[in-house]
Design brief:
The chain has about 160 residues and is of the alpha+beta class. The chain has a domain at about 25-115: Beta-lactamase Inhibitory Protein, Chain:B, domain 1 (2-Layer Sandwich). It is about 25% helix and about 25% strand. It contains four helices and five strands. The protein has helices at about 1-20, 35-40, 50-55, 135-140; strands at about 25-30, 60-65, 70-80, 85-100, 105-110. The longest helix is centred in the first third of the chain and has 21 residues, at about 1-20. It is flat, with a radius of gyration of 32 Å. The protein starts with a helix and ends in a 25-residue tail after the last helix. It comes from Novosphingobium malaysiense.
């Protein structure tokens, strides 16, 4: 009887461990445009225009604001490790370039090689001004309100709210 209880307890602990470890897998999430290579290959420079590109690939993720109105399609694969921050594992940016008449000139495909990794410095940013303590912040204005330039109770002389 004792062996059966020990086997059940051991099996229960093993099952709980498997469930715990299974919950610690990273999460993969796709964000943005889903690239279909067949549709992308059907876009031909000199043949297609803005309307045909929108009908084939769909609405772009965004349109450039300056110069020619190029279409951009952004696709990202994001991985989130257990107890960690999401990180972009793959990124693809499709740029469909148009001439001034609205016809396709070229389709460019870029990946993670164009992404710049910036690691900001963790120190404090230097600022101008005084370094005050908490007590100076709390009690620094006592006696200073109304002290400078009050000049009595004369009414403002001009049409504005401050007399100007």
């Amino acid at each position: 009887m004792r062996e059966v209880g020990l086997k059940i307890r051991t099996a229960g602990m093993a099952l709980a461990l498997v469930a715990l470890v299974g919950g610690c897998s990273s999460i993969r999430d796709h964000r943005g445009y889903i690239i279909d290579q067949t549709l992308l290959d059907s876009i031909q420079p000199g043949v297609d225009n803005r309307l045909s590109v929108e009908k084939t690939l769909g609405r772009p993720t965004f349109v450039s604001q300056f110069g020619t109105k190029d279409y951009y399609y952004v696709s990202q694969l994001v991985k989130t490790p257990p107890f960690g921050r999401p990180r972009t594992a793959e990124e693809t940016i499709l740029r469909v370039r148009f001439d001034p008449a609205g016809n396709v000139v070229a389709v460019d495909k870029r990946g993670m090689e164009q992404v710049a990794r910036i690691s900001p410095e963790g120190d404090k940013t230097p600022t101008l001004g005084r370094h005050r303590s908490l007590l100076e912040d709390l009690f620094g204005n006592i006696g200073a309100v109304g002290a400078g330039g009050a000049g009595g109770a004369a009414a403002p002389s001009g049409p504005g709210p401050n007399g100007s």
